[in-house]
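User: My instructor asked us to take a sequence, write out its structure as tokens, and then describe one feature of it. I'm not sure where to start. Here is the sequence I was given:
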Amino acid sequence: MVWETLPHTQPLRLSPPPFSAWADASSVGFSIITPRTTKALIAPSSRAICLREALALVCSANEGPHGTLLHTDNQSLSSASAKPKEAL
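Assistant: Let's start with the prediction itself. The structure tokens for your sequence are:
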């Protein structure tokens, strides 16, 4: 093990985040789960699912307490950022 060969160094110990929140979107709306609330919202359809994903992420960031770790499947967010703005 590396730490046995380097006695003068200490292993990096990361504490887990105090809270977690989840955000996801679909063609009919989006949902968020935070320590404070669980919400599912029906939203009018838009052409770009990335906007709905971003809205779900922003809502979960607003609802969660300070220091909350946000979880999302950001495939649509990353693909939208790679597209030209005219495509949205």
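For the description part of your assignment, you could build on this observation: The longest strand covers residues 19-25. Try explaining in your own words what that tells you about the chain.
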